[in-house]
Amino acid sequence: MAENISLTFYHHGNSHTFDFAPDSTISDLAEKIFSSLSIPQANQKFMITPKIGVLKYPFPDPVLPLSSLIQKKIVLLAPLPSELSALSKASAVSKPSQRSSPIKSATPARHRDWRKAQDEATYTFGTIVPLPYLPNPEKSRRFLERLRDDAGIKASMRKHKFSVGVLTEMNPAEHTTHESRTLGLNRNRGEVIELRLRTDAYDGYRDYKVIRKTLCHELAHNVFGEHDRNFWDLTKAIEKEVEENDWRSGGHALTNQEFYNPDDLGLDGEHMDGGGWTGGEFVLGGNNTLAQGAAASRGLDRRELMAQAAEERMKKQRDANKGAGA
Predict the structure, then answer these.
(1) Nearest-CA neighbor of 269 among 192, 177, 149, 180?
(2) Is 145 left (phi over 0), alpha (psi -120 to 50) or beta?
(3) How many CB atoms sit inside 10 A of residue 187's CB?
(4) Confidence band, pLDDT 50/70/90 cuts, at residue 12
(5) CA pair distance 48, 182, nearest whole angstrom
(6) Which are the contacts of 257, defined by CB distance < 8 A and separation ≥ 6?
(7) Quick one: how many helices (H) and strands (E) in the chain?
(8) How confident is the model at residue 254 (pLDDT cuts 50, 70, 90)?
(9) Helix H segments across 177-266?
(10) How far apart are CA 305 and CA 168, in angstroms?
């Protein structure tokens, strides 16, 4: 009858010797370690030298004879039972409570379309200029900014690559005749666009959707000066794009009454403009005649508008520099 074999291994600097039957395998060694040292098989890993290498449970050859390892150095790589217990307790303490927490888990940030953001910064209105001599210019500024930031307007300007230098308001008194009232003007295909924001009595603001429709008309003058079929086709396309891309379905006033004139439906006596205009004078009325006395108008002429726009850009730049240096 064959004699038992003795196998020695090392664990954390200590040697351990166990006796086994001659036909015992490495699986028997793992089971013996579990019963004697309380180290589960799943935590056992043996480094055997020379030659064999590292064996981890479950072993590649679970019936590897222990008799082939008697002349090898065997090191058990496994945590002590006390370390396993401490790890188990720490895991239990750090495990999140199953009770609902008042703090909601963070949601991943939505992906930002950087191409869209870049296009919106390029295809927009460079400067907003309310008329400073009319009542409440800051209210006019908010109206113009609302048009600039309108989701439908932004989408259409991106599509057609429209860039407008100055978006400003017009003084109703200077663009009203017995025959008609001008709603908007476009100079030099997008250098300046003027919109009639105010009521004739200066006691409120016109309907937002009517003014936005006027802006669609004026944007079409960035491409076509004359009111021909090409112009009207483009105007209609812009209006459709604005409606389709405005997720607010045309939006609402900043307050219930601030920008709305519910009786403002676009009267027959009103017209958008007399076509695109160039030079230093406006084209007014339905017959494309030059306005009389435009040079003496109290409104801002082209040079004044561009100067005011440049001053506003410089002010923004100074404010930005101050903010960066703070």
Answers:
(1) 180
(2) alpha
(3) 23
(4) confident
(5) 95
(6) 204
(7) 8, 13
(8) very low
(9) 208-220, 229-245
(10) 9
pLDDT at 261 over 60: no
What DSSP state is assigned to residue 180?
A: -
Please, what is the angle between helix 229-245 and helix 151-160, to 10°? 130
Residue 287 pLDDT > 70: no
8 A C-beta contact, residue 204 and residue 261:
yes
- For the record, the structure tokens of 112 come out as 């930002």
For 215-224, what is the mean pLDDT?
A: 94
Please tell me the pTM assigned to this model: 0.50
Tokens of 313: 């850009």
pLDDT, position 240: 94
Cα end-to-end distance, the chain, whole Å: 92
Tokens standing for residue 180? 């008609």
- Cis preceding linkage at 50, omega within 30: yes
Whole-number Å distance between alpha carbons of 286 and 160: 28
115 pLDDT band, cuts 50/70/90, is confident
Does 290 have pLDDT greater than 60? Answer: no
Which segments of the chain are extended strands (E)?
A: 5-11, 14-20, 45-49, 53-56, 73-76, 125-129, 164-169, 181-182, 184-187, 192-195, 270-271, 283-284, 289-290
Q: Which residues does the annotation mark as catalytic?
A: 218
- The size of the chain, in residues, is 326
